[in-house]
Design a protein that fits this description.
Blueprint (H helix, E strand, L loop, with lengths): L1 H20 L5 E9 L2 E6 L4 E6 L11 E3 H7 L12 E3 L12 E3 L6 E2 L12 E4 L18 H8 L3 H5 L7 E6 L2 E6 L4 E5 L4 E5 L2 E5 L1 E2 L12 E5 L5 E2 L12 E4 L5 E2 L12 E4 L4 E3 L12 E2 L6 E3 L3 E4 L12 E5 L4 H8 L3 E4 L1
Parallel strand pairs: 3-5, 4-6, 5-7, 6-8, 8-11, 11-15, 14-16, 16-18, 17-19, 18-20, 19-21, 20-23, 21-22, 22-24, 24-25
Antiparallel strand pairs: 1-2, 2-3, 9-10, 12-13
């Protein structure tokens, strides 16, 4: 009997030791890093999870700006030999934070869980990488068919970042068909496409980077959008549809395709600059942008189409009555009629 008791006692000690070393949340207790208020844990899968941010009174934020990438780089997270390690921002990690006005999420972050930035009632500016190691981002509906891909697309929208929970200081906005609460001061976003991923389509493998379909659709609070990064080649269907606060946008020279309705209904959009060459505009890209005044020009009511290789139907039907645009182009007249729809134009 005593022998059995000793065996049971030994087993219990082993179990206690294991639970002491590994918490019930799946993290090893000796792998917790408190990095300048950013709580980062390494889980049993070898991934790093940003679970919480707490203001560091001894090291206050400069200009109320938190640069997650700078902190991870300083702390060597992930380490150079951890090439497969993910960096994940956990749901609710910044819930209720009122200190951060600018949040910079670097390409070190590979996943942002739903509602990670909810209730950030002072947030004004957000920079995101839209990265993923093994996933696609559909630029148009039906580009890829699997349910997995569709869920990934949803993870790259403002609706996913901010979540659907109501809070004081949040504004109810319908983004991509989802009612979401966005900080009332949030007006500026930067998409930094600094690295891409292999996307497999029927024709083979190609390394692309796209702003997914409906990523910012309906974000009426957005006034400034900055697109940057050498990997960004596509702007998805309906990506900024209905962003009525957006006044100006510059499209980087890496972008080669802007899909249908991408800026449709952006009623405050006045100036668009497209820096690339041989760019394809699909149907109704700028339809209903009834404040549009300049496209690739600094002169009012002048449109320069020299950077485009193809333009879809009604892509330039701005809906501005009694305004005639001067057009610099080599496109044929019948093609221009299709592009401009009801909008008046004449060759410059």
């Amino acid at each position: 009997m005593k022998k059995i008791f000793n065996i049971l006692l030994a087993v219990m000690l082993v179990v206690v030791s294991v639970f002491t070393l590994v918490g019930c949340d799946g993290f090893t207790s000796d792998q917790v890093n408190d990095t300048k208020g950013l709580l980062v844990k390494k889980n049993n899968s070898g991934d790093y999870v940003i679970s919480k941010y707490t203001e560091d009174k001894d090291n206050p934020l400069t200009n109320n700006t938190l640069d997650i990438g700078a902190i991870l780089t300083e702390k060597n997270i992930p380490k150079e030999n951890e090439t497969d390690a993910e960096v994940i921002i956990k749901a609710g990690a910044f819930d209720g934070n009122s200190d951060i006005k600018t949040l910079i999420v670097s390409s070190k972050v590979t996943k942002i869980e739903k509602g990670a930035f909810k209730n950030m009632n002072s947030l004004e500016k957000l920079e995101v990488p839209f990265v993923g190691k093994t996933v696609n981002a559909d630029a148009y509906f039906g580009q890829t068919a699997s349910a997995t891909d569709k869920s990934v697309d949803a993870e790259r929208t403002l609706a996913h970042f901010f979540g659907e929970t109501e809070y004081d200081g949040g504004k109810s906005v319908v983004i991509a068909g989802v009612s979401v609460y966005v900080p009332v001061y949030f007006t500026e976003i930067t998409v930094n496409a600094t690295k891409g991923h292999d996307v497999i389509f029927n024709e083979g493998v190609k390394n692309i980077y796209s702003i997914p379909s409906e990523a910012f659709s309906g974000a009426v609070n957005l006034k400034k959008v900055t697109l940057t990064g050498e990997k960004l080649v596509e702007i998805g269907e309906n990506a900024f549809n209905g962003c009525t606060g957006l006044k100006e946008i510059e499209i980087p020279d890496t972008v080669k395709t802007i899909y249908s309705n991408a800026f449709k209904g952006c009623t405050s959009l006045e100036k668009v600059t497209v820096n690339g060459t041989d760019v394809v505009l699909k149907d109704s890209v700028f339809a209903g942008c009834n404040a549009m005044d300049k496209l690739n020009s600094d002169t009012a009511k002048v449109i320069d189409l020299s950077c485009f290789s193809a333009i879809g139907e009604n892509a330039l039907d701005f809906g501005r009555e009694y305004v005639e645009f001067k057009v610099q182009t080599t496109f044929a007249q019948e093609d221009l009629n299709d592009m401009f729809g009801e909008t008046k134009w004449s060759k410059n």
